[in-house]
Amino acid sequence: MKHSTFFWFVFPSVLLMIAFIALPIVSVVTQSLYSKHEQVIIVVENCGPFGCTQSTTVDQAATEALRAEEPLGKWAGLDIYKDRNHLAVNEVASAWVNSDGLPDFGRTLMNLPFYSAMAFTLTYTAVVTPLTIMLGFFIAIAVNSVARRLRGPTIFFSLLPMIVTPLVGSLILFWMVDARGILGTGLQWLANDPSLSVKASTPLMWAMLMVYGVWHSAPFAFIVYYAGLQTVNTDTLEAAMIDGASRWERIRYVVIPHLVPLTTFIALIQLMDNFRVFEPIVSFAAAAHATSLSYAIFNDLGGETRLLSSAAATSVLTIIFVAILLSPVLVRTWRDFGTQK
Amino acid sequence: MTIMKNLTLGTAFAALGATSALAGGHACAEGRVSIVGNEFPAIQSVAAAALECAGDTAEANLTADHQKINVAGMTGNPAEYTTAIVANSSIVALINEDVIRSLDDLVAEHGADIPQQQLITVDGKVMAVAFMANAQHLVYREDVLEQIGADVPTSYEDVLAAAQQIREAGIMEHPVGGAYAAGWNLAQEFTNMYIGTGGEFFKPGTAEVSINNEKGVEALEMMKALSEYMNPDFLTHDSNATSAEWEAGNVALMNMWGSRTGVLMDDEGSAPEVYENTKVGGPLTVGDSGVPATTLWWDGWTVAKNISDEDAVATFKAMKAGSSPDILNDETMSQAVWLMEGFQPQEVNEGVLASVAAGSTPYPMVPFQGLLHTALGDNIADYLQGNESAEQTLADIEAAYTAAARENGFLQ
User: What is the pLDDT of residues B5-16, one digit of tens each?
Assistant: First the structure.
């Protein structure tokens, strides 16, 4: 292809990517480096239906001048990244010096919002990603061996968890695991403990969030694998059958090698998605037990006073961590691409 | 969308009340009117009457997430929303961002008949017009208290004693309720309790937080003692879930919003045994400070700064009509403690009125209170779950607040 043809061919996509991906990231990075101006606080008298009280308010006229001078805000550099609500550099350093052994240091670390959010996010990603891939693979194998006439409805039902809106799906599960819900009561009966409550226990809440994560994203792995299964070379399969390979051996030596590139693709997407776990934490009202980086961003923007710079800093940290997490898979893809040439 | 559905419902019945004032439904204000606000029956009535006045082009977006969108929706020029319905906590963000205008001139010209007690003034300037009052107070089951032979509790210590008796009598395993969901609700309960101990949130005249003291510990300890008598899932129970527990007959004592008691006392959603015995008490106290452990709230409307004078006048007139005495009728009278003239207190309103009469403290209208509220909501659950000491939790809250306040320019 001529260079100019190629250029004009990709030009629209490049333009859209710059407008909708690159520029917003630049804007978020910029935002995270600035904090708000010093607010001029004055004491005033506020009156209302319950009488008058002495209170404080922001002196708008005085703050206006500061705003006009530096419309972006006050240059903060990396201060916001380093403060206690993010990387907590000083707190971690002093905990390292003062803590009484590693377990004590760990406890101090888990008491900092960023690190406790990371602990859950990473555990969630590490558990949910492989389970999703395995479950999706088994569903695909199972559906592929269903009689052709029944396949349509089976596929539809297998995809349901992904079709259902995440918030609704997790709400349904949330009600079912309530101490008085069907799953919650079932668990109490199984454990022979009438006071057992999933929502009151941190480990059970984590387990429930992960079960939900697998349930929700397994259909994605399934549909990708199912599409892959349709392209498995039937000649090879028949040859293996003639050679006396069992069903398991055919899957192990013919199907799985064929599907490995798809696994890379699913892992890539799932790592990204799982690292940004968010909806189940909101709809399970799980914030007391588990938070994630995305939840922290939501929390910063949802309070009565919005913390835009803090949310921006957490967003940038999320992007950096997703990039780190994906780097092995990306390197592998790059290598595969190289060898194919 | 639920917003649209609720509005249609709201419009349906508000039309009954509002048309009388409108001489056959003619628009009473000329200009653009667009409302954003919280979503509960009283606000729906106000918005519906205001829309009726403002004519066909007016819009209202009522949602529980109003405070996530009102600042953004009023920052542009012209602002998307010409008015935001706010409370004493949420008006602060609008004042901080300088997106609402002073109503002095509009009140002088078009609102001379608005009673003084409805005007919210900050530093002498009218910033909002309040139309209702709200507070949290005791809600109790009369039959259960009779069974154990206890008086109606007036303090949290009484509540604990009664709860102990109810549990020992085998009537209920978890007799105490409360909106203790981690986040805003939990922070609100701490705010009530800390005010009840006589504590001050900040060093006077500064943005420096000061809750890590024995009063903070006392407030946390009382919350933990109460949570021992709550459903183990209490950290996931917001006001809605707590109300549902009540209607299911699982709870006998709780601190609840006045604006929600109407739902508990009507004959929908619960058995006669529950709703007939649901009674409201006054605000509860904690310790011996004598200050009720509750906060007073008003809900009112504002006018956006970044709109034309014509639209501001139209918005003012429409909202004034929406919160005029004319909207009071049999249907709306029990929806809230209205501040307008002609309001006749109903049985469900007694709790809020008792809270006002007891001299409760209004929720602080302080620029950085919202940041502290967020920090409280994020950290208290750690203590209630027994993960750390009360002092550690209070220190965490102070540190989280300080970092946020520094980023927002309140602290250096």
Answer: 444 444 444 444
